[in-house]
Amino acid sequence: MTKSALAITMDELQARLNPLLRQWEFRKYGRTHNRTTADGLTHVIRFQMAAFDPPGTTYIPGIRKNLYGRFTVNLGVYAPEVARYHGGGEAKSVVHDYNCCIRTRLGRTAEKEAWWEVSLSQPLITEMLDRLQNEAFPFFQRFEYRDQIINEFRNTKDNTPLMAVPRIVCAIILLNRGNRDEARRLLAAQASDHSRNPRHPAYVMDLARRLGIEIGSS
Predict the structure, then answer these.
(1) How far is it, in rounded angstroms, from Cα 134 to Cα 129?
(2) Is-contact 20 133, C-beta < 8 A?
(3) Which of 53, 67, 128, 181 is the most exposed place for a label (fewest CB within 10 A)?
(4) Would the pTM of this model clear 0.85, i.e. be above it?
């Protein structure tokens, strides 16, 4: 299939950014880039182009916008043991952002997602290089090791902008490292949380059984 002009431009934009990404040991797989840390985590960068909405789509200011011709940059941190039991599924040869237990987007704020117009303008290239250097790479340095993940999220009860159900994620990492008692404590605390979906405690109980942990009934 012939590539669209937008896709060709996006290819060239990535090519302009690749030298910096290669410096940080990211490997390119289409729109996705992977980097493996010394602790066996995978850092993920994915350039996501907005889809073309079908004719007749209604756009609502502030709710649904026409983003065709724009792109965003997804960032993620993948822990294989977490994906094996919970979340986005275990990755194959390439790790995608939806496989990750920690996820965000370049330029994201509490108020909005950042989308840029696909182009080869020098201001855009300069901005992307700057954002990768000063936002993406410090984010990844924050999560080079599992200890950093545990230290940041193990005492977090609620979802965060970076991670959903952090007690589950931390419990799986801790169990994989042999800390069974702390994993059991976190899963038991999560199972007793009835403020979420009413089916959530049952999910946590089933997860605990699959992990070989007995946490009792909630």
Answers:
(1) 9
(2) yes
(3) 181
(4) yes
